[in-house]
Amino acid sequence: MFVHNLRLGVASLRRNPLLTTLMIMSIGVGVAASMVTYAVFRAVSGDPIPEKSAQLFAPQIDNRGPQYNHHGEPPDALNYTDAMALMRAHKAPRQTLLFQVGLSVMPDDPHKMPFKALGYATYGDFFTMFDVPFQYGSGWGAEEDDARDAVVVISRSLNKKLFGGENSVGRRINLDDRQYRIVGVTENWDPKPRFFDMFSGNAYAMPSQVYIPFTHAVAQKIDSYGNNNCGMDGKRGEDWDSWLRGECVWISPWVELDTPEQVQAYRQFLDGYAQEQRRAGRFNWAPNNRLRDVPAWLDSEHAVPPESRISLSLALGFLVICLVNTIGLLLAKFMRRAPEIGVRRALGASRADIYRQFLAEAGMVGLAGGLLGLVLTALGMLGIGLVFEPQIAKLAHLDFALVLLTLLLAVTATVLAAFYPTWRAAQVQPAWQLKSN
């Protein structure tokens, strides 16, 4: 019976090719607009580390006071004094600090020009906390952190560029005229958005290439390549030591807390630390701290660009308009077949038979519209850069999941849109049609 209904639907669609084409185009264009914008929204709104996002937390401490806060929120990063106080207290099973660095790579081949490699100064726990995958070797340990060793972890792409992809663990690399010993080579790891460095605006930046110990970077006075927010006064200090002692924020802290009890204890620790600073005269305001996990942190940092939400809303609205037009076209098409429906009903067809036939016909229209939508979606991917920033546009892609979703959306939306026209068609009274015809 299903095949029979499909045959009847094909014959009906062929009888009026212009109307059929209009319906297919309406569905295809509406679905394509929705899928293109959804592809962008999906890329920027996903959980970058779903297996641990509820255990990783970003501490925030208010070192400026309510007069300098934005909507009562403390700074998005820490200054050196507060960051080191958290590390020394070691109230979390794992913890790290980080700031962005930009180091000049000096190739061993004298015929090759130096180039800039961006990365992070951090602690050894970074690699374990964020589940960084390794191609060769591993991250460094607490001993290297304490000794301020000149060790480095490089990316797979940098390793291929410098050593042809061979295992380079134990070899030396020249960064800013300093020799570093390679201890690990990461796999292609680039979570999007880059949740651990929202402060420097690197949510959708190019992948990191180097990682060096935080303690070594501070000892060598390697300046931050990321943001450096000094508040309303804008005073950074006259030299390196005054900058470290100052209130400029430039360090992103992260802690890993495995249980609700650990989370509650760490919040109490942050409030206790702020109270100590208040008693010492450094703060003259009540504690104003935050401890957010990854989803809450991304939400507070507005990781999803507002234009992606607006575009998705407009595209879905456009799809609704296309579906309304499809409802009108299907209603006109089905009601023109009232005499045919009356004859079928008089010969014993039930209303359920009418529903099955017309919904099967609508499903074919939806499938054809979905196939057209796939083509238009693929073309739309080429023009995303005209609407969104290039670093965001390149994240959107047409994969197997999006193909299935496009077809499913097209067929489901069309079948749902066909329910009202089909209901109207099923209400046709056979006696009236036979008498009038």
UniProtKB/TrEMBL annotation:
Q: Molecular function terms in GO for this entry?
A: transmembrane transporter activity
Q: What is this protein called?
A: ABC transporter permease
The UniProt record lists the MacB-like periplasmic core domain at 20-220
Question: Where is it mostly found?
Answer: membrane
Q: Which residues cross the membrane?
A: 21-41, 310-332, 365-388, 400-420
**Taking every annotated instance into account, which residue ranges of this chain make up the domain ABC3 transporter permease C-terminal?**
314-430
Name one matching Pfam family.
MacB_PCD
Provide the membrane topology annotation: Multi-pass membrane protein
Q: Identify the keywords attached in UniProt to this record, alphabetized.
A: Cell membrane, Membrane, Transmembrane, Transmembrane helix
GO CC: one term?
plasma membrane
The listed locations are:
Cell membrane
InterPro entries in the record = ABC3_permease_C, MacB_PCD, Macrolide_Exporter_MacB
